[in-house]
Amino acid sequence: MNCADIDRALARQNKLPPDALTAEAGEHVLNCPRCRALLEVLSAPPSGGELRPELASAIAERIGQNLAAVRPLRPAGYYAGGFVLIFLAPIVAAIGILRASGIAGMGLSMIAVVFGGLAFCGGLLAISLAAEMAPGSRRLLPPAALMGGILLAVAANIWALFPYQPETGFWLQSGKCLLLGIGFAAPTAALAWGLLRRGALLSPAVSGAAAGLLGGLAGIAVLEIHCPDWNAAHILVAHWGTALICAATGLLAASRADPPVRTGPPGPVLR
Amino acid sequence: MEGVEQRTEDGAGGVPAHSLASLEHWMSRYQQADPAAPGALIASISPALLRFFRYNSASREQAEDLLQETWLKIHRMRHSYRPGEAVLPWVYAIARHVRVDSYRRVRRIVAHEAAADVLPEAAGRKDVFESALQFDALVAQLPDSQREVIVMLKAAGMTVEEVARATSSTVGAVKLKAHRAYESLRAFLTSRPPQRTGKPEDAR
């Protein structure tokens, strides 16, 4: 056993100060001044947490001035279910309103891959959005990584499933699809944002991007149901582009909801 | 205030040996507007929060300001705590956002100020170097993301799972940061201080 093994053993510990190490590790620590010093530092009682009683009372008094009962958030599953319903609503509406020219030409396996993939991504995003509402919630992945992963996965899915074909009127057709997709995605994102606001938005920009992406995924699903153009370039630009534009718009719009950075003297002021 | 009276100082970690169940109890009472709840929560959580801010390069005065901001934010967001959930990840998720916001605010102010004079060194930094082998001296050398993890583990007495929740991360990522931090701390202890590369990460 060497110093690197001690580092690994420490990293496996669930908390600090570390619990007792194995006999082999203990023997190494006894004979290694560097490891002994590291363990001493990590095991020493922390300092610097002396709370002035007057500060504690001032904070308590300030909080007590407008203490009112609040209704806590419901369980995360309740809100995740809400986001799933918001995600499904435009798809159900599209089936009722638009012609299903896109899905009509797909085989069962293709339907399963395209819509199964979108449903899976929408579900993951719904869970992440529900976690976003309560600080300190358990995460499957950091939100930014999840959103990036979803966008890449959907793009890869399109690239793998659909052929590249020459197409006349590419930009006109893509523009129409983009508008249609955004037309369904925008209200979906707005509804998701409305539900998100019931929680605590510590990072409005991230939450806004996630709400936009949820709307964008719904927009892609609507376009896959309706649009008969199977050109991969068209699907990437117009369908996948819907999700990208909605996520970016959500990020920018929600950033404006971010509390402005104060330029005055920092801090509240209880002295 | 039963929860507070039962609390003792844990000599090993210096972390208040608060009963997590009592924190959850007081948090629920806080949501129900029990006037005793804020005081109980402030008394039990604030010392570790102060340490969290101080180890993350704040002076005593700055740490107290950040503590107050954190409590005001906690008060505004108290409805977002779900009864039965762990309290510390919820509190520290808010605290780290307050810290990052403060860092941005200070950076923006500094960027707009004319460089008329030499800026004072970051508070406490010099002392930190002089008190070699102290925990705060060592962690001050770590990149911000690693320092945050180590400080939450040590100063707040949180578990790896709780740190992952507070930092919107995963247990694997927290363990990796901890491992790198131990390597860096060892390098510092062997007089090969690693280059300071960190700045408060964008937690948004």
Describe the structure concisely for a colleague.
The complex is a heterodimer of chains A (271) and B (204). Chain A has 271 residues and is mainly alpha-helical.
Q: Care to describe what's here?
A:
- The complex is a heterodimer of chains A (271) and B (204).
- Chain A is 70% helix and 0% strand.
- With 271 residues, chain A is an all-alpha fold.
- Chain B contains ten helices and no strands.
- Chain B has helices at residues 2-5, 20-31, 36-55, 60-76, 87-112, 125-130, 135-139, 144-154, 160-166, 171-189.
- Mean pLDDT of chain B is 75; it is low at 1-18, 118-133 and 193-204.
- At the A-B interface, helix 1, helix 3, helix 4 and helix 10 of A face helix 3, helix 4, helix 5, helix 7 and helix 8 of B.
Record keyword descriptors for this entry.
heterodimer; A: 271 residues; mainly alpha; B: 204 residues; 10 helices; 62% helix; 0% strand; disordered C terminus
Radius of gyration of chain A: 26 Å
First and last CA, distance of chain A:
52 Å
Q: How much beta of chain B, percentage-wise?
A: under 5%
Average of the residue pLDDT scores of chain A: 88
- Approximately how much beta-strand content do the residues of chain A carry? under 5%
Note the gap between the termini of chain B.
36 Å
Q: What is the total tally of β strands of chain B? A: 0
Mean pLDDT over the full residue set of chain B: 75
Biggest interface:
A-B, 76 and 92 residues
Shape of chain B: globular
What structural class do the secondary elements of chain A suggest? Answer: mainly alpha
Q: Assign the structural class of chain B, choosing from mainly alpha, mainly beta, alpha/beta, alpha+beta, or little secondary structure.
A: mainly alpha
Q: What does the oligomeric state look like here?
A: heterodimer
Helix percentage of chain A: 55-70%
Helix content of chain B: 55-70%
Major sheet details of chain B: none
How many DSSP helices of chain A?
11
Count the DSSP helices of chain B: 10
Total strands of chain A: the figure is 0
Largest sheet features of chain A: none
